[in-house]
Amino acid sequence: MELNARVSGLQRTDAGFRLSTADRTYTARQVIVATGPFQIPFVPPLAAGLDGSVTQVHSSAYRSPEALPEGPVLVVGGGNSGFQIAAELARTRPVELSIGSAYPALPQRLLGRDLFWWLTRLGLMRVTAESRLGRRIQARGEFVIGTDRRGLQRAGVRFRPRLVDAAGRTVRFADGSSREVDVVVWATGYRSDHSWIDVPGVLRAGRVVHDRGVTEVPGLYFLGLSWQHTRGSALLGWPLTIAAVALTPAAVRRATRVTRPA
Ligand SMILES: Cc1cc2nc3c(=O)[nH]c(=O)nc-3n(C[C@H](O)[C@H](O)[C@H](O)COP(=O)(O)OP(=O)(O)OC[C@H]3O[C@@H](n4cnc5c(N)ncnc54)[C@H](O)[C@@H]3O)c2cc1C
């Protein structure tokens, strides 16, 4: 096991695969890519229009209200991170929340049980990506869980529609309204990054081509992709499976060789 070794390249060879890190090359007959669905914090390009004096933080770097400069904050993004950060900040300062796409809200607990208990019992975590229901859920988008608009309104959060422009210290919203900002928290999600994978046939328009994690390239598998097979595929606590693959640690050791520079 190698810690702190980012794989920067993956190529196919006659014998299998070659993986490169900063100082080593690995060869392997089989590769499982389990790099997670949340690799690159995404900030919309219009953020570049904001003046350097505006404090900008992506939700992945947000730690606490105290870590931000004092004063009003604009939170951009109406997913779980945006709602939760807005709720926390609203306890001590004025907050506006810009929501580009509104997701349905669900309570964290229902009739004394955690929401995921219900979702599991109702079979919703096992709904497959290709099923009719699975496709509908994917098209509809995520749920906001445990916080909702009414609660935030009570806490004093002011809602704004989608942010459409940013120039200097002024941001403009889809309804034509605008305001000056000092601090912006971008709760605008993540993108996956598979640019280091240089194996023909694996990526199409940046997306992994696979069937339940099995790619068309023999020996190359993915694990933990969003909706890889079911809703639970990229969540903690649901069984991670690759279709039709049985790899034991011994088999992985036999199939892997490490080359260190002389
Ligand atoms: C804000 C947020 C909140 C979440 N809340 C929940 C929740 O409440 N419940 C829940 O079930 N799930 C939640 N999730 C999802 C949860 O994080 C994922 O389900 C889980 O982390 C996926 O595990 P993973 O091992 O597949 O990927 P990760 O945990 O993302 O691990 C991937 C690993 O791969 C490494 N890596 C990436 N690229 C390379 C490379 N090129 N070379 C080498 N290593 C690399 C990364 O450094 C990382 O260590 C949340 C995610 C986010 C972003």
UniProtKB/TrEMBL annotation:
Pfam families to which the protein is assigned, alphabetical = Pyr_redox_3 (PF13738)
| Protein's name according to its UniProt entry | Putative flavoprotein involved in K+ transport
Q: From the UniProt record, which GO molecular function terms apply?
A: flavin adenine dinucleotide binding; monooxygenase activity
InterPro entries the record matches: Auxin_biosynth/cation_transpt (IPR050982), FAD/NAD-bd_sf (IPR036188)
Give the keywords, sorted. Oxidoreductase
Q: Is Oxidoreductase one of the keywords UniProt gives this record?
A: yes
